[in-house]
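Morning F.,

Quick status update on the modeling queue. The single chain you submitted on Monday has been processed. Sequence for confirmation:
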Amino acid sequence: MGADALVACDEMHHTTELVRWLHGRHHRLAATWLASYGNTSDFLTHLDGQGEYALTTVQWLPSMPYADSYFGTAAQYAAGFTAAMGNPPSYFSAAATAAGLVLLTALEQSIQACDVGSLTQGQAQGPDGLEGVDADAFMWGAQGMLCSGVGGNRSGVLGTEQLRYALDTLSADTFFGPVEFNAFRQNSIHPALVTQVG
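Structure tokens below.
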């Protein structure tokens, strides 16, 4: 076996089996690159010290320098999640939470850009513009409403159209990292991080 380097991209258990197999044969590699859907803590747990000096990419770690006004820093989010759930967040959990925050932010921007007075069912709006708004009427109401942003000020705008516009033009920072969507509606500015497994 004359390999000096390994590049592996597979599910965590397959990658783990491969690294353990190499380790069991005392084959030392000059470079190891492991890519999976997990993060470094997943590799550390699964490899049990057998993947020393291997590199991988991650989408998120609690030590990343990101923050937002809702969850605080990445470390604060991780601590709050751990306290609530009893275990630390995976990057899947963090990504899902960040996606919910992005959607909430876009909804708030959408509602603030529209005249939702006819959608409040006679209730006063709260300071964030959300309280008392009939969500179904906002998103799918046939009459639409007066909104700014979609081609200037115009009437008859549906909430779904305004929400799409808000997401298309959104530029935000979250505890998970920066968010800005390109023409393909992909978050094109969120960087992946290269980190050492062990």
